[in-house]
Structures are given as structure tokens and as C-alpha cells.
Input
Amino acid sequence: VPDVSLKVLSARKRGSRLRGLLLAVSLCGMPLAAASAQQSAAGSDLVARGKYLATAADCAACHTAPGGKTYGGGYALATPMGVIFSSNITPSKTAGIGNYTKEDFARAVREGVAPGGKHLYPAMPYTAYAGITDDDIAALYAYFMQGVAPIDVAAPQTHLKFPFNIRASMIGWNMLYLGHDRFVPHQGEQTQIARGRYLADVLGHCGTCHTPRDMMMGQHGNSLAGSAVGAWYAPNITPDPKAGIGTWSAADVTRYLQTGRTEGKAQAAGPMAEVVEHSMQYLSEDDIAALVAYIRQVPAVGASGAVARDSFGPRSQDEQTLRGARDVHDKGWEIYSGTCAGCHQENAEGNADYPSLFHNSATGAERPDNLVSTILFGFSRTVDGKTTFMPPFGPRALRTNQLSDQDVADVSNYVFTHYGNPKLHVSAEDVATIRKGGPVAPIARLGAFAIPGIVIAVIVIVGLLVWIFRRRGSKA
Ligand code: HEC
Ligand code: HEC
Ligand code: HEC
Output
């Protein structure tokens, strides 16, 4: 009997233990399951946030080759140092960044150093991305690892000429030009302005193109005051009413960034068309408002004698009648009338589909680059599913459309004197330079001499630092 009771007891005990265990498991399991559901929801939130950040940072513009797969790399960036190919940044373990840890990713994006100590060229805008916050880096990493399809095809290798093929030379350059501070709002800075500053200076890297560069391709000061970008020119977008965009309303800037065209002012071609197409059109209303608010209050940088780019009207009708007879023999007018007038109209007044060529920042600028580049390379910009397209008349033009350097110079000069900045004049040689992708930067012309220059600069800086620390030390 006692045995039985014992057995019963132990069976009960076992039963209750089992039930207890089951209860415990199910009790723990419930929150566990809920937690993992919450976790994966948080995970997919993180991936979605990373995707939005990658759009705001325009990673796709450079990391997708024309007609290629998104983030597969191989986009050729024409720099004054030569062509630099972007990397495959899909999570492929053989051809992409699939073996990167989060720390590797953060270091590559913010400091320009890939695993194995490979120094990236600043064609990858890590000097701007240096400010990306730790939270945002985590979201970007989650997106690139989990939200992007791997592509197992390696991007082409970059082969620059000596000395630029020595990637370690970037150590010196980075000492001069790379900041290490993550973004934090300034004390007393309005929330909207701070967000705008983060979007413009860090994620959107507007300054990479719009801020002037020195001899060594470095940037310091005169933020957003205008700079050459290969064959194009990214104009002054500070609030100066003459040299910049100070006369543009907030709505004008917003329209430009969201659609690529603000009538009577400007349109986005070349690299800016890509910024609008891949990035700006997708920003939330709050973010675009913050970006515009920030851009409109940065310090104005003016140039004496500047005339607002969009202020030039058409030449007066009287003058045209007076000069009419001469114009017929003007080679530029002949090309204009045969090649451009079909779209931009006889008197360049344009229509709903084609912009007028007066009151147009591309023809009224202080420099001819954007008119000449538009004629040579044409452009295409897709916004909201609708493509705006101007055919090229340069190297990639249909045979029947090709214009020589002299033709492009003639038609440009005709457009400048009649509709734009009459002070501008371009020669066939100027056009040839732009056809080749723009002028070569001084640092590239220095060639092999650049290395000693960088080494000397590093020695000077290290020397200065040592001196400063010694002085501090001796004071202490
Ligand atoms: C203006 C063009 C440009 C933009 C925008 C850009 N990149 Fe790059 N990126 C490059 C180029 C060019 C390289 C290759 C540089 C080299 O070979 O030195 C590169 C390299 C990289 C690498 C190193 C890969 C490796 O191991 O070779 C990573 C990671 C990377 N980019 C991530 C990003 C992310 C993330 C973004 C967006 C936040 C981004 N890039 C935006 C041009 C760009
Ligand atoms: C990859 C280089 C590049 C980047 C990055 C870039 N821009 Fe531009 N931007 C240009 C170029 C080139 C033009 C001239 C386009 C044209 O006239 O067709 C331009 C034109 C503009 C204009 C019109 C100015 C005028 O008078 O015509 C505005 C406004 C502007 N950019 C704002 C921005 C803002 C804001 C950002 C950052 C979110 C930005 N850009 C990032 C290259 C760039
Ligand atoms: C088939 C029609 C077509 C022809 C031909 C054409 N264009 Fe255009 N052009 C366009 C379109 C479309 C745009 C862009 C409109 C927009 O951005 O919304 C444009 C834009 C421009 C711009 C502004 C570019 C910028 O950077 O802001 C200039 C300048 C220009 N064209 C000059 C010319 C000249 C000069 C010719 C003749 C050599 C010419 N176009 C021939 C359709 C044409």
C-alpha cells in the first residue's frame, strides 16, 4: 500500500512537475513569442528606417551603374584624378559587403577605411557621412544586410595613375580634411533647423558638390558657395540674392528639389538630376521642409558684381528686328533654329514641356559649364514615374544630331548673347575641355609631386600637434 501511495504520490508529483514545467514554459513562452514578434517588428522597422536613410543619403546614385542592378556598384565616377568605380555594396559574401560587421560598415562609411585597412577615395563622400549618428549607422547596416538582395558580380577595379594608386596617401589627406565628430544639434538650435542641417550637410552631402575645393580637393569654409563637378557646375545655393538663391521662396526651393524644375528659375540636369531622381523626391514633407528651412538660413556668400543667374530676360524685340538681317548669317542662330527651336521655341520662350532659355540659371550663370554640358550630354530625370528628357548633341548623340566643338561654341554664344549672361563667351577649346569631363584639378596636374606635398603637410601637422601638447604639458 505505501508503495502504491508513494507511486501515486510521485506520479502526481511528476505530473504536477510536468504541468508546472509546461505552465512555466508556456508562461515564459508567451512573452518569449510576443517578444520575438516584437523583435522582428522592431527589426523590420529598423530595416525600413535604414532604407529611408539610404535614400536620403543617395547611396544608390553612386552605387548603381547605369542600367545595372541596385547597389551592384561599377558606376564610373569621373574625377580629376581619373575614373573611380564604386563598390558592390550588396550583402554578397563574394562580391559585396556580406562579410562586413557593423563596425566594419561604420568605419567604411564614416571614416573611409574598408576592412583590411583599404583606404577609400573621397569620391565616396565619407567626409560628409562622418557625422552620421550611431543609431542611423545601425539602421543603415540592418538595411544593407537584410533589405538588399545580394549580387554576386564584382564591380570593376579602380586603377588610378601613380601616385593616386597608393591608397595610403589618403591617410595624409584624411588628417587634413576628415572630421570625426558625429552630428549633434548645436546649443539652442531649433529642432527643424538641426534636422535640416543633418539632412543637408551629413546625409544629403550637398556640400560635396556645392562647396568649393582647394588645390588638394579639400573643403573648408565658404559652405555651399559653388563648385565645379566634372563637366558641370554646382552653383552657389547660399541665400545671397545675387550670387546665390536668396530671391527664391521656400516654395521655389521645395519645388526644385521635389520635381527638378522651378519655372522661370532653374531645372536640375547632370548630377543634380540624379539627386532629385534618386533622393529628394522621396523625402517626407517634414524632412524636405527642414532641409529647405536650413538651406535658406545658412550664411550668405556673395561675390561683388554678381548678377542673379535667373534675372536675364530675352533681348528686346526692337533690337531683334534691328539686328534681324545680321542674325540670318549667324552660325549660332542657324544651329539654334535647326536644333533647339523645335523644343525651346523660336524666341526661346519655351512652353509647358520645355523651359524658356531666359530667366534660366543655366544660361545666366557666371560660368558656361551647365549650358555647354546640357548640349553635349543631354539629360534625363524621372520623377513620380514621368521622364523629362533632352537629347545629347555630343559624343553619345545620334549620328545625325552630332555637333562639333565649334558648333556647340557657336550655339552657346548665340544663347548667351540673346537670352543669358551676355558677358559669357566660349571657344571650341572650352567645349573640348568640357567634352572630356571638365578641367583637371591642380592636385592631379601636380601628379607625382603631390605625394611629397602630402607627406610634408602631414609632418607639419604632426609637428604642430607635438608642439601644442608639449606646451600644454609644460604649462601643466
Ligand atoms: C558620391 C558617390 C557615392 C555615394 C553618394 C556613396 N558612395 Fe559609397 N562609395 C563610392 C565609391 C566611388 C566607392 C569606392 C571608393 C574606392 O574604391 O576607394 C565607395 C565605397 C563604399 C564602400 C566600401 C566598399 C568596399 O569594401 O570596397 C561602402 C561600404 C560604401 N561605399 C557604402 C556607401 C553607403 C552606405 C552610402 C550611402 C550612405 C554610400 N556608400 C554613398 C561612392 C559613393
Ligand atoms: C552630385 C553633385 C550634387 C549634389 C550632391 C547636390 N547638388 Fe545641387 N546641383 C548640382 C549641380 C551640378 C547643379 C546645377 C544643375 C543644372 O543647372 O542643371 C545643382 C543645382 C542645384 C540648385 C539650383 C541652383 C540654381 O540656381 O540653378 C539647388 C537649389 C540645389 N542644387 C540644391 C541642392 C541641395 C539642397 C543639395 C543637397 C540635398 C544638393 N543640391 C546636392 C550638383 C549637386
Ligand atoms: C527634343 C527637345 C529638346 C531639344 C531639341 C533641345 N532641348 Fe534643351 N531641354 C529640353 C528639355 C525637356 C529640358 C529640361 C526641362 C526640365 O528640366 O524640366 C531642356 C533643358 C535645357 C536647358 C536647361 C539645362 C539646365 O542645366 O538647367 C538648356 C540650357 C537647354 N535645354 C538648351 C538647349 C539648347 C541650346 C538646345 C539646342 C542645341 C536644346 N536645348 C535642344 C528639350 C530639348
